[in-house]
């Protein structure tokens, strides 16, 4: 069995992890960190201490009415993508431990296209 890093649990929410194959489980927000535990396999878990989190990237659709997924970017181990049953409540729980300036909105589809075309044309001019 896996030991939790948290001593006090604030919130537990049903969620999905998109690390490799899709894993269904629970996200636990506590005083020491962010944890994801797989429902079926106890060996598949993700534990991220609050000090290790660099940014939380939130995908926002329909002017903030729907949040399909969010990603937790760590300082050393990369980015972990999740979706939750109630992501707004989960992100409010994360905001208690992570600075609100580190929770950012992801780029929209058109912003990504605009950025790539400007980079494409600006790199041709500089050559």
Structure description:
It comes from Vagococcus fluvialis bH819. It is a single chain. With 127 residues, the protein is of the alpha+beta class. The protein has one domain (9-122): PH-domain like (Roll), CATH 2.30.29. 21% of the residues lie in helices and 43% in strands. It has an eight-stranded mixed beta sheet with strand order 4-3-2-1-7-6-5-8, covered by helices on one side. The longest helix has 18 residues, at 109-126. It starts with 8 loop residues before the first strand and ends with a helix. The model has no long low-confidence stretch (mean pLDDT 85).
State the gist of this model.
With 127 residues, the protein is of the alpha+beta class. 21% of the residues lie in helices and 43% in strands. Pfam families: DUF956.
Low-confidence stretches: none
Radius of gyration: 17 Å
CATH topology: PH-domain like
Number-wise, the strands total: 8
Distance between the termini: 57 Å
Order of strands side by side in the largest beta sheet?
A: 4-3-2-1-7-6-5-8
Query: What structural class should be given to the helix and strand makeup?
Result: alpha+beta
Proportion of residues in extended strands = 35-45%
